[in-house]
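Re: the 541-residue chain
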Amino acid sequence: MSLKRKHSNVEEESSLNEVVHKLEASVLSSHENLNNIVEIYKIASGDDAEAAFTAANSLGRIYSALWTKGLLKRAKSQQQNKDSTTAAAAKVSEWIRENYKQYVDLLKSMLGNSNGPIQIAALRLLLQMIDKEGQSMCKSAGNYVFPNDSFLEAIEIILNSSDSSEHLLRTLAESYLNAYDDLRLYFYRDLVKLASPDYDPFKNRSKRGPRASSVQHSEVFVQNAFAVMNQIRTMPKTSNENMSLWVALPKNSSDAEPSVLSPAAHTRAFSEAWLALMRLQLNPEIYKQILLMMHKRIIPHMSDPKLLMDFLSNSYETGGSVSLLALNGLFTLITEHNLNYPQFYEKLYALFDRNLFHVKYRARFFRLLEVFLGSSHLPAYLIAAFIKRMARLALFAPPAGIVTAIPMIYNLLKSHPSCMVLIHRMPEYDSETGEEKVDKDCDPFIADEPDLSKCQALQSSLWELETLQHHYYPNIATLAKIFNEPFHKPQFMLEDFLDHTYTTFFESDTSRKPKKAPALATQPPTTLIRPGDALSDFMSL
């Protein structure tokens, strides 16, 4: 019985698909069969998923043909309708537009479906309709026109839907936004409208007065918007570059150059979109990802990178790993865009705490620190403060952190000879006895002083390095003893020490062949109680 039901279902689906194809052929062959559109729409909105999919694609081909023939074009005035077409033809055209609107609404509902393949098909059909609509609008206007109202509605559904699949977002970005410059341009503009409709990031004002530091928006919208923005990789750079447009330029355009061909328009839209996204309430993961990509993928394409100053400054002052990630973008603004950031080194110094050697982005921080402290124009007291703080924290750091700190200190001493006094400071001796003076508070360094000029690091010494020479891990003890030798060796390549972990240490030690076999056992005893043992005084066997 069940086999018969399955067989009947297959036959029913096959018959529905055949019906759809026949109805489609009849509509495309003659305008007298336009009523068959209603029948196809009923199947498209029915419960049979496969037949509905076939019917939706069929309607897409039908309406594409009707757009091309001009039957979906709205007349400019009623008088023109009476002069150019019959009343019956105008009524038919209005009927087609009403049914077309129902079809577009159906595609929008499919776009919000939880089924990934259905979402992809709906997106493809919607963009296909936008293409045909745009071509019709360009033909009527005589210049380039993009049907952004329809595109905005589709983008709004995608970004606000919790059912938008990862496949849908990736397809939107990779297959359409990365491939077509006009779609990307209007996506940026629509994102700004959806994220902050009353705010102009370039004028820093809104129609409703000053805004809060962040705009409240749904978490789903933020996640979907960033997922799409993060996958957009292309950006026009020169006006001579051939741009790929989804809605083609009209052949006889009255405009000299539409805005869609202007790189400045793309750059401005890119800047507005990212600024609007950064003003939303970002979760920590997205916040960190934006900071990670800031200096390579956002700042180079901004029309005015200084607009990022508030975002990066606030991030830098947050503390913890967020501050570490904000360093790269902030340093780019300082060095390449003449940003004046007061007390930069004081705040950088404040980031040095015990957590620094344990965070995930430790290697990234030390790469930047090497650049920040590399200038020979920095005062000696400032370099000495960083060296001393680094050495003090190394006493409590894991081996992977110490292996990074020691080469860093060595390189700073080599680059700034005025700080060599930290390792060559001689002890004081009593004039009468000739013995070395020992004071438990002999180190003048003030570890909790935030002002680099007042922490007295330059009057101190690096006794911490002497302590590290007795570290339990032999490799660190050996590395620390380099300060006992003359500074004739070249600077360390810091990159060779940044990515060490307990795993790399273990693999290195276990893969090394020992020069001498270690002792694994003592001489076996011959008696239960040896002479000289404590028990030998109380008993004898």
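Residues 2-29 form the longest helix (28 residues).
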